[in-house]
Amino acid sequence: MSEKYDAILIGAGMSGLAAGIRLAQYDKRVLILEKHYLWGGLNSFYKRRGRIFDVGLHALTNFAPKGRRGVPLTKLLRQLRIRHSDLQLGEQNYSEIAFPTERLRFSNEFELFESEIARAFPDQVDGFAKLTEAIFAYDSFTPPDPDLLARGELAKFITEPLLVEMLMLPMCYYGSAIPGDIAWYQFAILFKSFYDEGFARPEGGIRPLLDLLVKRYKSLGGELRMKSGVAEILQQGAGSLRSAAGVRLENGEEIFADQVLSSAGFGPTMEMCGAELGARVTDEDRGQLSFNETVIVTDKTPMDFGNYGAAITFFNDSDTFDYRCPAPGGLGIDPRSGVICSPNNYAATEPLTEGWMRFTALASASHWGDLAQADATEYATQKQRAAEAFLDSASRFAPDPRPFEIDRDLFTPNTIRRFCGHPKGAVYGAPKKRLDGATELPGLFLMGTDQGLLGVVGAMLSGISMANRHCLQPTA
Amino acid sequence: MTRDEVILAIKDIIETIAPDEELDSLDVDERLRDQIELDSMDFLDIVMELRKRYGVQVPEEDYKELASLTSCADYLGPKLENVELKVGV
Ligand SMILES: Cc1cc2nc3c(=O)[nH]c(=O)nc-3n(C[C@H](O)[C@H](O)[C@H](O)COP(=O)(O)OP(=O)(O)OC[C@H]3O[C@@H](n4cnc5c(N)ncnc54)[C@H](O)[C@@H]3O)c2cc1C
Fold first, then answer.
1. pLDDT tens for residues A432-441?
2. In which region does residue A400 sit, left (phi positive, over 0), alpha (psi from -120 to 50) or beta (all else)?
3. pLDDT tens by residue, B13-62
4. Per-residue pLDDT tens over the stretch A29-45
5. What angle, 0 to 180 degrees and rounded to 10, lies between the N-to-C axes of helices A376-394 and A365-374?
6. ipTM confidence score
7. Percent of chain A's residues with pLDDT above 70
8. How many CA atoms lie within 13 A of A401 on its CB side?
């Protein structure tokens, strides 16, 4: 059969591209199928009015200098055989967690964060040291308990409620699919990726990094087909011999493979397996946390117009942080907390001449989904209204870019759904992760968001480890 | 391949997968893991490269035989006896 592949990968996001490189590197016949006309998934880019906008890049977490041992970035580069210098990473100035009564700064040097905690919460220093120790002792080899939640664990070390809230805020925004909390293992992974490793930005945004991955994949003989949405996962055999056999595309074409790895999310993937397996998808498997994003381009840099030097500001306007999907109606977003980010505040050999600020708010996917269907004009009006309310809120914590504005772009959970396929635009997918990547159908595996590793670096590591485990390991 | 060539072959593979490691001063009897940074993902790559370059299969239960350069030579020597060394691929 000429059309048979060793592996078909669903989705050309970060996880799919990384898995593809691994497989192609070892001479597997591999095909990536992507329903969009562009690769990158949630980390893609788009052009508007002559400018390139990144969909989801605030910061590349897990920054490590060249050669630092034992950290995710170093492992990832090695596995994909990419040189550190090819990423052209520029380090952040600093970032901050801002509450009305306290602000904590952090940078790529862990000592800054430690000293900030000691300054603001002198009686929590011991607890914080023990917390850090517990997190560093948490090695990634022991299988984590996905049901253990961070708030409960934090309470064992930190007795000051405000510090707990301040520690929760960035971790939830950057990786929790669970309302009000985050899995403890995710918290531990993210904590290291923020404070012990750090933030950087690839020069030129996400596009050069994507180009690098796609070029490497293709040069190894990997095949990539765009505008090729998978409609169905084909199966063979029956009973205990049943397994994945390939896919049927939306246009009806059938392509066969020994293994299928999907980054489309657990729910959507199982629903592609037909009514019987699809019916087993429960509410627990469907995430709902999603975001609205407002991007403002200005004629001066944020440093020039507002003395703003932070790469990222995580803000919350009271002493308690409420991480959940806002109810539909009202503004459609929760203006009380959010993330402010400026790509200008990373080192760069060619600094950006225009100013950029991005604002991220928790949003109600059903609010925006229903509105877009019902009334396009009202949708556009409300999008602007929500953006204005959120900018008003955020400008209590960072300078207001509006007086210097020359362009803006807004997106809602609808946009996110288009880029990743997750129902409700759930950025971090399902609350319940499947860490071994296995599904009920032999030969079909998950990678990316719903396998459990998040973010740019996390998604790539997920693709790598699932490809290794299920397709390359000699016993596989 | 001679014994020395097997060691060269392994070093060359390590150089490909871990270009930033210093390999000249490796002690042949000491565990590789104790001298340079190699995790289980890297060992998988050594095995995959052995298969790709020399057609030799190392089952998972034998990974432990690759612990040091000497044990690599002991284990792989017989398997690579009639195979030509390829370096710099
Ligand atoms: C606004 C925003 C900001 C973010 N900021 C950051 C950040 O600053 N730093 C960071 O590290 N992470 C950030 N993230 C998260 C990061 O983007 C994701 O965790 C990561 O990109 C997920 O990659 P993935 O490969 O798992 O999935 P995805 O990117 O979701 O890729 C899945 C791919 O599969 C395709 N697909 C789905 N269904 C099908 C089908 N049936 N057939 C064919 N193809 C299909 C989709 O089109 C998509 O391309 C952000 C996300 C958002 C939305």
1. 899 999 999 9
2. beta
3. 999 998 878 888 899 999 999 998 888 889 999 999 999 999 999 988 89
4. 999 999 999 999 999 99
5. 150
6. 0.84
7. 98
8. 28
CATH number of A288-420: 3.90.660
Distance from CA of B5 to the nearest CA of A (A): 23
What residue ranges of chain A are covered by domains with CATH 3.50.50.60?
Answer: 4-61+206-285+429-471
The pLDDT of residue A135 is 94
* Structural domain for B73, as ranges: 3-80
A472: chain B residues, CB-CB within 8 Å: 44, 48
Nearest C-alpha to atom 13 of ligand 1 is from which residue?
Answer: A455
3-state DSSP: chain A helix, strand, coil percent, rounded to 5? 40, 25, 40
So what's the architecture of A4-61+206-285+429-471 in CATH?
3-Layer(bba) Sandwich (3.50)
The predicted structure's pLDDT at residue A422:
79
Beta-carbon separation of B60 and A78 below 8 A: no
Q: Where in chain A is the domain with CATH 3.90.660?
A: 288-420
Q: How far apart are CA A273 and CA A244, in angstroms?
A: 9
**Is A476 within 8 Å of chain B by CB?**
no
Which residue does chain A place closest to B59, by CA atoms?
A474
Residues of A in contact with B89 (CB under 8 A): none
Confidence (pLDDT) at A158: 98
Q: What are phi and psi of A76, to 5 degrees?
A: -65, -45
Residue type, A26: Y
Residues of A in contact with B41 (CB under 8 A): 75, 78-79, 464-465, 468
Q: What is the dihedral of CA A189, A466, A265, A40, to 10 degrees?
A: 80
- Residues from B in contact with A at Cβ < 8 Å: 16-18, 20, 37, 39, 41-42, 44-45, 47-48, 52, 57-60
Average pLDDT score, chain A? 94
- What's the structural domain count of chain B? 1
- Please answer yes or no on whether A79 and B18 come within 8 Å at the CB atom: no
Taking the C-alpha atoms of residue A433 and residue A450, their distance in angstroms, rounded to an integer, is: 5
Provide the pLDDT for residue A415.
87
* A1: confidence class by pLDDT, cuts 50, 70, 90: very low
Q: What is the band of A140 on the pLDDT scale with cuts at 50, 70, 90?
A: low
pLDDT in tens, A185-232: 999 999 999 999 999 999 999 999 999 999 999 999 999 999 999 999
Centre a 10 Å sphere on the Cβ of residue A143 and count the other Cβ atoms it contains. Answer: 9
Query: Is the CB of residue A468 less than 8 Å away from at least one CB of chain B?
Result: yes
Question: Quick check: is B63 in a domain?
Answer: yes
A75 with B39: Cβ contact below 8 A:
yes
Are the C-beta atoms of residues A382 and A393 closer than 8 Å to each other?
Answer: no
Residue among B40, B44, B52, B65 with most chain A CBs within 10 A, to mutate: B44
Closest residue, chain A, to B44 (C-alpha): A473
A28 touches chain B (CB under 8 A): no
Alpha helix ranges (H) inside A40-95: 72-80, 84-87
CATH number of domain containing B20: 1.10.1200.10
- Residue B85, domain member (yes or no): no
Tokens of A11: 């989705």
